Amino acid sequence: MGIFDTLRYKKDLERLEKMARETPSTENFLSLIKKYISLGDQDNALRVAKQAIDQFPEADEVFEIYSKLRRQQSQDEIESLKRNLKQRPTPAVFSQLAEIYKDLREDETAMKYCRQSIELFPNDDRCYCILGELRLRRFYSDLLAKDAQIAITNLEKAYEINTRNYRSLLSLSKFYLQIGMVQKARQRLKNILLFAPEDENVKKLLDVSSNVPKPPHEDMDVLLHQIEAQRRLHYNLDRENVPGVPTPVNHEIFQEALENLKGAEGLLSLLVCDEDGNLIARYAKENIDVYTYYEVSVSIYQTVQDSSRQMDLGRFQKAEIEGPFGNIHIMAADGVIYMAIGETLVKNETLRKYLQHLTKTISVNTGKIAAKNR
Amino acid sequence: MRRILQQLNREVGVKGSMVVSPDGLVVMAELGEGIDQEVVAAMASSTIGSTKRALNLCGHDKFDRLILTSAHGRIVFVDIELAYLLVLTDKNINIDFTLLEIDGAAHRIRNTWKIE
Description:
The structure holds two protein chains of two kinds.
Chain A: H1 3-22, H2 26-38, H3 42-55, H4 60-87, H5 91-103, H6 107-120, H7 126-142, H8 145-161, H9 166-179, H10 182-193, H11 200-209, H12 220-230, H13 251-259, E1 267-274, E2 279-284, H14 290-310, E3 316-323, E4 326-333, E5 336-342, H15 348-373
Antiparallel strand pairs in A: 1-2, 1-5, 3-4, 4-5
Chain B: H1 2-9, E1 14-20, E2 26-31, H2 37-56, E3 65-70, E4 73-79, E5 84-89, H3 95-115
Antiparallel strand pairs in B: 1-2, 1-5, 3-4, 4-5
């Protein structure tokens, strides 16, 4: 590479770095990461990808590129750690492996190493902490009470073993704050100040804690069940805390979307319900007893939702049942349950398309109405 | 039957499989590490029973296949006449490919029973 090329690349990089710093967006981060990759600078590509994933944890494209880079970087490390584990298992090796898999979002493998470590070294705090963080990540994504309860048990255990476990204490403080247990959060933050009195992060959180609206009681189970039902944290540290107003269900939007699918081939009925099974909108082919199908579908929805919880699989997303009666597809999205009942000969793929079409139409129409209201 | 389940478990994303009667009696299980057989059997029994009861409302008493997808995994139930084949899989797999293998396994188990 000549001196001019080097200068040009340097300038390009500076420009992209500046863009990512000043106007952080997934696009800007991705451009910078790709630039580093094209220059063969894997270390910087990974550094930027880590920053990007911290800021945009839900962006699939960012995670994909981060996970690829991280996997490349950690391949040798994983192999070496696995060899060490065979020769001389220690809590440090277990936790390093669990940490890598946690980072790659291979939660089950990470949990496996944590469980193995806890079985062999029950008095080491590290894997309790990682296990707690893994569960907490699931809780923040699905907002299911069970995940939070397991997370807290593990994080509190890590703190019980090691009262200077900074990560556990910080995770606990943030969690308690976000579910509305302000006193408990302040207590855990003060626990950190005992050994890290100058910690800026903790001081900031203590300030924030005085702004968190206090619920009438600090019963964890009650608060968690409220959060699960409302699908919203009591206080969100990551986003602007606009007082949550539940989106009103607009029956017309749903009914209108159903009308678009009237007469679709092989479709017997389409139903839209809320999470409690209350009917919002319906469509049924002539001579079809819509209420029977409604009862059948809601009952199956409740069953599969219970099964999902029983198996600890997180929030229910969809179910497809086929048999001599035809096909029933049930899908959950944003607190709304969509159900499609098809004839025996209709293909699963066709029913999936109908449901996709339905949810897409609803989202477009909702967007239009929101824009109109603005 | 164990061999069929073990072979199925080697497919990408399959975490474990089990043959279970509608009332939750485990005929054969090859579940992965950390999966509690009793929990799976109890869940299977309640899912199969409740789904059949729901279908009864529209005059049917059986289903051929049920695929349940949740945020952190999938469960597939396939009717194999005397019992159900239950397969636990990762969520992020191409389910259509895995279904071919699951149907194949279900078919082989049915045949084994017929021969016996």
